[in-house]
Design a protein that fits this description.
heterotetramer; A: 385 residues; alpha+beta; Butyryl-CoA Dehydrogenase, subunit A, domain 2; Butyryl-CoA Dehydrogenase, subunit A, domain 3; 8 strands; 47% helix; B: 342 residues; Butyryl-Coa Dehydrogenase, subunit A, domain 1; 2 domains; three-stranded antiparallel β-sheet; 10% strand; globular
């Protein structure tokens, strides 16, 4: 065990810091879920990142990455959050789909889809859930039929993050008549393809953020299926592992917020409610514990380990710490906590209220925390189903 | 010793509940929001006509001369409906303050007008622009201003139905009153009725989650049959069950205006806000992604609960009042209701 | 709503206070679960109470009570806990069995069993659980067979509170071959009857407290069955309502402890951890909320209401507040918290550690809190089973 | 940057675990308790022979010259076994303190002897009577006393295996050392290894609850198939998962002896004690009445967790160290491991 960065890691950090300091937009971009303008501003930022070689640092160089390992990826993320750089509008693609694509895709598929993903030219939405299949993903009904070298998609998807403005969607479809985990395929489709209707859904924060998708005889090349016919569930579970387990929420995100929170608390001096010191310390400890656990897990993965059901412990931990951290910030803000960022007197240093509302979705998406607890109990502890 | 409500009290509460159910349904409130109206004049008129704005006014001011218990039940119903109009702040806090200074004040004669209130403890004033007048606190004194006499700057609350304003004004001229005790009373009523609204909000959040959990199916069963869902909602219901009697006792002793009654009110404010937080978040979790969308009502409840928890004193302020009571007066089983231990 | 005591209620309080002040033992009695001596000391206290007319204040006068209503009972309990009077060794009889007996018993049964219960001459243990039937009480296997005017009992009971030293037990038995809620009888049996073996069980605090009972062809008169053959489940559920709902845990118990806790906290002055102020306030608020809720419920019952599933909310609330209160006290004691009352330097003013250990059983007995939450969800909220 | 244990570290930990499993089973500990023995001399000898008491001693004191990471894994295993002997306090804290003053001290030469330690922060000294000597703190100085030179008064802990003593003594004569920094180091190690024991305790509590929940049936199903039981134990396991890396990182940086390493140790102490509390109470609840009986092991774990949480600094003490670090040094994503932000 050696918890010091190597000289090379330190140099890499400084290189990332220098580039980010020089390129991160001075003013925050408008939210990518709020308007087309915000979305395109984030796409432009992806392009800038790509030009600098920073958009997909952990990918192989042939697809636009730097071939960095998980520790270097964590260092990059630390620098990224340190300067409060913009949210990653193509996260669904880069963090969720790309690892799956690299594991299960053909060379041709990788060559076709990864480079425009890295450059932000093609931005991806996920399309997992359906109205009757949320936590119970095996219950999906959307269908895929092969017709020569084409696939014909039909169905109704919902809660598709980014789908209001994105270019491509990836989702699960099943062979008609198949049941539960069998007969599923993971298919990519352009969101502007004939037969696709995108109905934006407003979130509780008023932003659009996700959409409902209706697919009516949408035709895509058979090339757009990842893996073989019927392999969809297996592939999708691998993605879920990445999503919950490691790549969805960088520890740096919470470390940065916790540091802000602590500064805010200490700036209140003697006026601060001493009972809140407890929560501020807790918020920082949670962020650090998450960071340390992810570093430990990354070290293990680097030497050939696999993410198992402990991915579910990560999901529970980051989603709960995020809520706690933001609740504590709102408590510090007192009666001003309810002001939105549109209000003249809203807290300027950090979007605590937006962060709180966003955090409330954490225990729900990427597999509800109830489901994660079942997974921990059954697969880690061995309790009966 | 009788902890039951009178038939009159129950009837008044039922009237409020029915009125809100009929005039302030989710669909009606959403329609009002779409039209960007500050208030629904028809609903507000009906509220005034029904007498709900007159509960706490003394009879010599043309009011019903009833007490805080009566109004607390109305506030609970207003919370349940997440009523946008300023019934609670105007008729529950501002009007009684003005009546305590001058029961014949002409502003009290038209019960369809609303009053806004700006105590030192709240940084913003709700519904200041549509009020007939603002009652403002400065160093314990009470000043009356018309909206046109002050500078109002809208501050957007996350609750789209809450219309907050920063009020800039000069405490010049003779105040209506210099009696700082009036503002302590106003704070008590403010905290008490915010608590009452919170239990209404909490119960509504539970009720809609229960309805959803009965019908929404996952893995071939209604989600309400899973223990995780059952226990989440059961815990929220426990919180509501143990908040309501505290609010009712706080309302019944509000007029005592002492260390004991203030600790009771603070207790009510703390736990009712917590119950609302617990219940609205449980409701959100039970609704899943659906609950996170604008189309399901849970977010309106969650936002109102968040706003109310920090208004009229946050948890830290009220906890200090509880600790002060514990430090300065004896506690124990004989002091539950009896200040002298008998 | 009138939350002031009447003059008569105030006078009653002062009368109770005067008697208790004059009669409560100056030194705490040894624990009734620890030794036979402790048990008998508590029996003697029951006798003293009975002689003063205070042992069963809420019972009808004909059985040794004062016919007091619930509000007066609460006042009596407040005075009782105010002076930290001894624990009630016959609580299983007085608070659990007696209300059931008064509702379902014949005049002869009441005349036989209630007076010696009131005087402490006969002390009662409950005998509900069996090794395979804890939360699932309908699963009990112990049997009762009628043989002429006698009942023959067989079976294995466990977790019988007080049974190590008590005189009588009451428990559920079923007609052989009957299932679930049917065919059950509630039967009383002397713990020294031939065929009864009492094996004391040590609790985690080292005290004995409960026992395991083996019944082998134990013969009791048919007179000892409460209600008709097969009515046992119905009767038992009524008892469970009393137990969880109202009579098991007086609010005064927690009010007294919370007041001690607050005094302890404030006595620490500036040395106290300010974050603990939060918990001290919480402990007092919990105790008051419980008190107010019980008063509200008692008012409703006095005008003819019944205890329904809200009994389950009471059980959850008092069991959780009790743990919280004692945890807070242990936190205030710091590194001395682990000392037992046998230690020279143990906290003298209140048995916080014993209270904490006792409180840990709260979420388990009288129907586990998991079962209570099911009841609330299904019977109060109407969620599907 | 490598967060993995070396093969040597893993092997040493495995040795400790196997030794404790073989010599300190529940039955063996209960038998020892029945005999009212202070310690099991055979077990203690085996522990010493295996080298576990020499992990932290420098090579010039005849030790293995290993670090806190190595010993933390042993302490975790000791917690898992709720070991009665003073391995952690003697070999993990007292001996390194003495070795730091004088690595050739003759008390270090016989590794089968134990040392007791009395820092100012703990009111009582564990296993003082069976120790070869006591190391006692007075105003930052270190005094050495033999048990016969001080007045020992047994203080009964709720944990029947913890043998606490009040020590009355005079700080007369020349201390072994006046360097107060030694006691700050001792406190760090004390808190760190208490934390490590707590995660062991927590994992044991979960493991026995899981075994019970697999076999115990109610309502026709194993209780472990109910969500209420699953989620209770899953939450406890989450707490353990996120405590262990903090302990390991705290152990790895312990030698830094600065604001950063001390905050990490305090963090570890707080959350490991909480994990042990959560897990032992969850285990108790899962076991039902059975868990409340003396015959099931859960109470031994619960008691040890309770005792350790307030020893070597309680939550308030350690929280203050965390807040001090946050006030006095920068925080943020670049300061996770790097004091200078690189």
């Amino acid at each position: 065990m050696d918890l010091n960065y190597t000289k090379a890691q330190q140099n890499f950090r400084l290189e990332a810091r220098a580039w980010l300091t020089a390129h991160v937009p001075a003013a925050p971009l408008p939210h990518f879920d709020a308007t087309r303008e915000g979305f395109e501003a984030h796409r432009a930022w992806e392009r800038t990142m790509h030009q600098g070689g920073w958009s997909v640092v952990s990918w192989p160089e042939e697809y636009g990455g730097r071939g960095l390992d998980l520790i270097e990826w964590l260092i990059f993320e630390e620098e990224y959050y340190r300067v409060a750089a913009p949210g990653r509008v193509n996260q669904n693609g880069i963090c969720l789909l790309a690892p799956t694509l690299m594991e299960f895709g053909t060379a041709e598929q990788k060559a076709r889809f990864l480079p425009p993903m890295a450059s932000g030219e093609e931005i991806w939405a996920q399309a997992w859930s359906e109205p009757q299949a949320g936590s119970d993903l095996a219950h999906i009904r959307a269908t895929v039929i092969q017709d020569g070298d084409q696939l014909v998609l039909n169905g109704h998807k919902i809660w598709s993050s980014r789908a209001a403005f994105a270019d491509w969607g990836f989702g699960l479809f099943r062979t008609p008549g198949s049941e539960r985990h069998k007969g599923m395929s993971l298919v990519f489709f352009p969101l502007n393809a004939p037969g696709v209707t995108v109905n934006p859904i407003r979130k509780m924060d008023g932003h659009i953020g996700f959409a409902e998708l209706f697919l009516e005889n949408v035709r895509v090349p058979a090339f757009n299926r990842l893996g073989d016919d019927g392999q969809g569930w297996h592939i999708c579970m691998a993605t879920a592992g990445f999503e919950r387990g490691l790549l969805l929420r960088s520890p740096a995100r919470y470390q940065q917020a916790a540091a802000k929170l602590a500064a805010h608390y200490h700036a209140q001096g003697n006026d601060a409610d001493p009972a809140l010191g407890l929560e501020v310390a807790r918020a920082w400890m949670n962020a650090e514990a998450y960071m340390l656990t992810i570093y430990a897990m990354s070290s293990r993965l680097l030497s050939g380990g696999k993410i198992g059901p402990e991915a579910s412990t990560n999901k529970i931990f980051w989603s709960e710490l995020d809520i706690h951290l933001h609740r504590t910030a709102l408590a510090l803000l007192g009666a001003r906590a309810e002001l939105t960022s549109a209000a003249a007197e809203a807290a300027r240093d950090h979007d605590w209220l937006d962060g709180y509302i966003f955090s409330l979705a954490g225990p729900i998406y990427a597999g509800s925390n109830e489901i994660q607890r079942n997974i921990i109990a059954e697969r880690m502890l061995g309790l009966p189903r | 010793m009788d902890f039951r409500f009178t038939d009159d009290q129950l009837m008044m509460a039922e009237t409020a509940r029915k009125l809100f159910a009929a005039t302030a349904s989710s669909a009606q409130l959403r329609a009002m929001l779409a039209k960007e109206e500050a208030r629904d004049e028809a609903r507000w008129s009906t509220i005034a006509e029904t007498g709900l704005t007159m509960i706490l006014l003394p009879e010599m001011a043309g009011g019903l001369g009833l007490g805080e218990v009566d109004f607390a039940l109305t506030a609970e119903a207003a919370g349940y409906a997440w009523l946008p109009e300023p019934l609670v702040e105007s008729a529950g806090i501002a009007a009684p303050l003005l009546a305590a200074i001058n029961p014949s004040h002409e502003l009290l004669s038209n019960t369809a007008r609303s009053l806004a209130i700006g105590p030192a403890i709240n940084p913003y004033v709700a519904d200041a622009d549509t009020a007939a007048a603002l009652l403002l606190e400065h160093q314990g004194a009470t000043y009356l201003r018309h909206p046109g006499e002050v500078k109002l700057t809208r501050q957007q609350s996350l609750d789209p139905f809450r219309r907050l304003f920063k009020v800039e004004w000069e405490p010049s001229g003779t105040p209506l009153s210099r009696d700082a005790a009036l503002w302590r009373d106003a704070l008590d009523r403010g905290a008490l009725f915010a608590a009452a609204q919170c239990t209404g909000i909490a119960q509504r959040a539970i009720d809609i989650a229960v309805e959803y959990a009965k019908t929404r199916e996952q893995f071939g069963k209604p989600i309400g049959s899973y223990q995780a869902v059952k226990h989440l909602l059961a815990n929220a219901q426990v919180a509501v069950q143990f908040a309501k009697p505290v609010i009712h006792a706080a309302a019944a002793s509000c007029a005592q205006r002492d260390l004991f009654s203030r600790a009771r009110i603070s207790h009510a404010k703390i736990i009712a806000a917590e119950a609302a937080d617990l219940a609205t978040r449980a409701s959100l979790q039970v609704h899943g992604a659906m609950g996170y969308s604008w189309e399901v009502d849970v977010h309106f409840l969650l936002k109102r609960a968040l706003a109310l928890s920090a208004t009229w004193g946050g948890p830290g302020f009220h906890r200090n009042r509880v600790l002060t009571r514990l430090r300065e007066a004896p506690a124990g089983p004989e002091y539950g209701f009896a200040r002298a231990g008998v």
